[in-house]
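Narrative of activities, Objective 1.

The group set out to show that a structural description can be obtained from nothing but a protein's sequence at a throughput compatible with the screening campaign. Below is one input-output pair from the validation batch, recorded exactly as produced.
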Amino acid sequence: MTIDTKDFKVSGNKQIDLSKLDTSQNGGREKDSSDEVLNELKDELFKLQEKLYASDNKALLIIFQAMDSGGKDSAIKYVMSGFNPQGVQVFSFKQPSQEELDHDFLWRHYKALPERGRIGIHNRSHYENVLICKVHPEISAAERKVPLASIDNEFWQRRYKSIREFEDHLTHTGTVIVKFFLHISKKEQLERFLERIDDPAKNWKFSANDIKEREKWNDYMQAYQDAINETSTDNAPWYIIPGDKKWFARLVICQVIIDTLKSMDIKLPELDEEGKKALAESKAKLLEEKG
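Output recorded for this entry:
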């Protein structure tokens, strides 16, 4: 059964309030049947990706953002399992290098864009520059080597504009963009942090710094809300995915990607008359060899 994803999409003229969105909804579905549905969706993803790769005409950029323990890594793992790895590029953005800091904030992200015919997945993205950098404006001040006082509202409005123009340029030159915010509750983050601490196999996923960032939960929620409201456009929409139930989040994400690929009107390449003639000649030679 197709999942209706329109309720999760933030259209260009829609202003959202994250505090009013239910992070634990399941769309009236049951977890027991989710694996079967997910496998069906992944089969469809594979077929659509194959057409995209063969067409070599457009690219798809998928962006994942979330709070710590929001489920980005596991969502990417499950989505990736429905793709042919040859046609997918995954980038995880960490703290920028000195070389990257010597360029504008979009430079390293531009370098990581997918080629035509491919799907690019960005685990965190250029949005970190209006998320963690907004919660910690001293980061931007240090990177730009400017006084902290200059990192004001006008500064952030310029960054939002730069992002909108960057994404607008991409969409008009053949890259389709879909952006996911995996929205979990503070309570759910608490449970996932405790699980990481209690399970030795997951200890590596936890950092004491996660607790410090958790103390700024409200600041992060405001930063995410501002970023989504400022940069969700018809060409590069945000989807706010209820993330407390990972199994449901994965279903919605897969369905959104399927819907997006279908909307790209991907067509397999067609041979011209000369190509068809060469194909017929090749077939004749092979049949002759077969005897």
